[in-house]
Amino acid sequence: MSTNIYLSVFDAVPTWVMLAPIFLCSIVGVAIIIERVVFFRRISHDYRLVVAGCLEGVRAGKTQEARALVARYPGPISEVIDGFLSSLPGNGAGPRIIADLSSGAIRKIERHLGTLSTIATITPMFGLLGTVTGMMKSFSGLTREGQFAHDLLARGIAEALITTALGLIVAIPAWIFYNYMVSRVDGFVKDLEHVANALADHGEQ
Fold it and tell me: Helix (H, G, I), strand (E, B), or coil: what is residue 94?
């Protein structure tokens, strides 16, 4: 195939084809950010006090009151405490159950972070792809029309700049929120480790 055939292929690709993946990534990214911010806000509790209060109730023989206490603080970490309390007294509660519950809690806390990281990574690439196709359209116009191809040249350069700008507009906030969410996840994982250790210590007593 000659160079002109390759150029004609890219000439046939409309600009919206280059913009559609960027818009799709922006919609998914915004949805993930809103969902995660609301979720993290809902599960932000002082779990050291929660698990201490629950274990104190268990030692006093008030397991149901302890479960009622943890029910006031919804979230995956509280579900670990409630799952441990529901398995008392000693009918299977142990390190394995705590590990299983903790693994499930971590999956819920980390949900969608991989998708947001992917969006922050690939949207500049979509923008770069639009830049390449836009420049190819410009050169194709110059090849066909010579020095009079002002409109085709301007249209190709505009496509190149628009896709690059939109790709960065989506990627930059996505990357900022991804790093913010990673820091929040690290905090919740530390809380979960404290809760799991406290439950394991109680189970060994």
Answer: coil
